[in-house]
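Sorry to interrupt, but I need a hand with the structure work. I would like you to pick a protein and set down its sequence and fold. Please put the record directly below this note.
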Amino acid sequence: MRTILCLAPLAFLIGCDSDSPQVASNLNEARAAVEENFERWQLHQLDTYWYTISELREVGCPGGDDDTGDQLPAVRVFVQDGEVQESFIRDMPDSPFPVTPHLATIDDMFNWTLAELDREPQIVGEWISPDLRTALPAFDPDFNFISSIYIKNETNEGCMGVAFSVGEFN
């Protein structure tokens, strides 16, 4: 957190916000890219498909390890007529895996991402590695779904960040 020293005589009247984390510098550009690709995704009018998602929940995220974060198993998600029909750990069909807002339909993924961007996160990038933290999220070149994204938001109910990548789309 930043500490700001307010020296102006009127500081006691107007206050000083020292707990506001800095918003990602590429937030507007990232939001525009997500919105544009969401529109393109919808033009494909796909409502039946399957994909595999890999997710990393960082320190402090629900379901993650409080100290080191948590790499969740790769999950295969089947969507039919716009609804998730089945989700399980990839290559283990007998291991159901619960659906979360960003582990659902591709539309749900876009809506979750836009809602997270509305919270003005500190980092929006393609992945968690330092060289990709300022790159825009990646999108599939054929179908325009989000193929890789990392969002870090210190004020998101204690969650420090979520990264996910989508592959094996069919």
About this structure: Strands lie at 49-57, 70-71, 75-80, 83-89, 123-125, 138-139, 146-152, 162-167. Residues 23-167 form one domain. The longest strand covers residues 49-57. The two ends are 44 Å apart (CA to CA).
